Amino acid sequence: MKVKHLVALVSVFCASVSWAREPFVVKDIRVEGIQRTEAGTVFSYLPVKVGDTLDDEKAAAAIKVLYATGFFKDVRLESEDGVLIVVVEERPAIAQINIIGAKEFEKDKLKEGLKQAGLAESRIFDRSTLEKAEQELKQQYISRGKYAVKITTTTTPLDRNRVGITFHVDEGKTAKIRKINIVGNKAFKEKELLSTFSLRTPGLLTWFTKEDQYSKQKLSGDLESLRSYYLNRGYLEFSIESTQVSITPDMQDIYITVNIAEGPEYKVSEIKLAGEMLVPEDELRSLIKLAPGEVFSRERLTESVKLITDRLGDDGYAFANVNASPQLDKEKQQVAFTFFVDPGRRVYVRRINITGNSRTRDEVIRREMRQFEGSWYSTSKINRSKVRVDRLNYFTAVNLETPAVPGTTDQVDVNVEVKEKPTGAVMFGAGYSNMEGLILSGSIAQDNIFGTGKLVNLMINTGRVNKTYSLSYTDPYFTRDGVTAGFDLYKRVLNTSTLSSVMNFNTDTTGAGIRAGIPLNENDSIMTGLGIENTVIDLGPNSPQRNIDFVEKFGRSTINIPVTVSWRRDGRDSAIWTTSGTTQRVFAEAGLPGGDLTYYKVNYDLKWYYPISELFTLLLHGDVGYGDGYAGKDLPFFKNFFAGGNTSVRGYNISSLGPRDANNRALGGNTRVVGNAEIMFPMPGMRNDRTVRLSAFIDGGTVYGSGGVRPEQEGLRYSAGIAVMWISPMGPLKVSVAQPINNQPGDNLQRFQFQFGQQF
To answer: Boundaries of each POTRA domain copy (predicted)?
Structure first.
């Protein structure tokens, strides 16, 4: 760049010297030498107009301006009978850019990077820009650990004053982190400290995660993690003295050395509160997670400050400021903290602004808000509002901000920004599962019809085992208080003849029902339903005697009047990507007198999510059920519980567990027990993708009941394995690979199981 500017200045100087002639009035202006540039473009930059008097000073200024455009590599001014002649020599244009040898990146992405550096087709060629683009291209490779990359650039002249540029890339091998050393650690082992790093030496999955490739940004994050590790364990004076990153001469191996000074471990000696106590001091003290005599932890200190700030925020003090001031006693290795509380002004919410909802009506979002306009600001109500809007499941993202109103000191706005996702679909497609085989389906569904929050679903779903035809309607706000109302029309056909593990029978059920739900509080709701259904039974060959007795007693066609009552509690932090909280559901169904069937079934389902870390979530799931008949009747065999398969105990065939007949076919039972424990985590390399999740699991469960003639096959079964859940563009996909742990001879195993194209 310096050479370029020097040449330009010398040219301007020489031109101004060569112009040493008498000033004259410009009668006309003519441009010569242009091929691509329009004459009007030159005139727009030229600071001389017809009628101006051109002297040496103006001539030098004109030449300088035209050079500065970057369009020309030579500019001269001549005169002829009062006509100013501008003679230019254009810089060549870039006709094409070729990249040869690039494998690590897509060529289009590399060209986009070159464009940002100023090098692109149809632009003016400039040598300094080319050098800058070369360096940019090299930096792209270095960011991927390709420190040995070599880039050779060839410039080829073409006709019409154009050039072609070719980048020859020799990528070389990716440099790997061979060793990370931590020097100065005494309290903790190096292996323990390195476990906090995202950077690591080559391992089993680093070829995919790229964690063995050096990155300055990742190292900075790891150093902060190391600092937090020590500060959370009492080492207040911990410091990182230096960091060295070296690479071998062949550009293949990287060595990282971190020098640290631990300092002594500090314990908390005293906790004080000072400032304006608008909340009782005892209540504020209960929010402080540090206690005298305990080892200091920055994490607990930060949490304490946040809890006090949030508590003040619940009373309207949105801008409360809480500072924890430490007083160190280095001799005793103790630290005392004084929490200075400044609540500031009490504020209220002026307006709630909703953006991003092009389809969903404002009222659908506003009725979920627990923070109201004109009321005092409340941190807990704002957080609760975000959770409720999130649970609508109409959006892929929900963000709430509370900016101060300009020009005021006691007002804020609540800005709700949502990102909508498709909530309706007209779909005709196919799916496959190794339980159902080929599934042909068609549906017209809208979870948010006309943006009102109401749900309509017309579905046709066919498979070898289950066929469903249904129409459902739900109004989640039938009343302003949140009472839910809806109805269902359905036809369900069950054919077990293709399931070798289940007794052979077919049922054809046609029914209708109405339902209503009542919210009890923010997390709890009760749903009730009443219906009527007709079931036609067709027994297959070798049916168990109890099934034959049932048909002889009630006939092939039965009328049932089912009534249902359920209680549900939803305490999840998010319906989009759950990391903490619980869901509970108690479901009861009974056949009322007046129908052919009098029975009852009760089921309890619990899911508990616990965040082990930022990436890993523990899920514990329990499901128990019991059923029986009353008024002198038994539980209908087609109302039995079943277990086994992708939704209960993986590794065992669908509905294959529990009592069995002489042909080793599952009969089902009146008692069901299922439990699962899973560790869920993102797909490596896809940490921010909320459509795919991996898990490692242990399953256990079975069903109990009478009628089985193979008691050695009964009892709990366990399995362990891994699973992947993906909300794909083609539909939900759930795949699991499980190893049965205590399987017995005769068990129907199925280690690989998946579902695709239907809900699960």
So the answer is: 24-91, 92-172, 175-263, 266-344, 347-421
Does residue 10 register a pLDDT over 50?
no
| pLDDT reading at 206 higher than 60 | yes
Give yes or no for a contact between 181 and 256, defined as CB atoms under 8 angstroms apart.
Answer: yes
**What residue spans define the domains of the chain?**
2-90, 93-170, 176-261, 267-342, 348-420, 424-756
Tell the burial category of 576 from Cβ atoms under 10 Å away from its Cβ (0-12, 13-18, 19+). Answer: middle
Q: Render pLDDT for 345-354 as a digit per residue (tens, 0 to 9).
A: 999 999 999 9
DSSP 380: H
Weakest-pLDDT range from 114-128, 358-372, 729-743: 729-743
Global confidence as pTM = 0.61
Other beta carbons within 10 angstroms of residue 6's beta carbon come to: 10
Strand partners, 609: 581, 619
Instruction: Give the pLDDT mean for 265-280.
Output: 93
State in words which class domain 424-756 has.
Answer: mainly beta
- Greatest Cα pair distance, the chain, in angstroms, is 125
Which run of H or E residues covers position 67? helix 56-68
Residues 236-250: what's their mean pLDDT?
Answer: 94
Identify the CATH assignment for 348-420 out of 3.40.50.2300, 3.10.20.310, 2.30.30.100, 1.10.132.60: 3.10.20.310
Identify the burial level of 434 via C-beta atoms within 10 angstroms of its C-beta, where 0-12 means exposed, 13-18 middle and 19 or more buried. middle
* Homologous superfamily of 176-261: membrane protein fhac (3.10.20.310)
Q: How far apart are CA 115 and CA 269, in angstroms?
A: 60
pLDDT digits (tens, 9 = 90+) for 576-595: 678 899 999 999 999 999 88
Q: Measured between alpha carbons, how far is 645 from 650 in angstroms, rounded to an integer?
A: 5
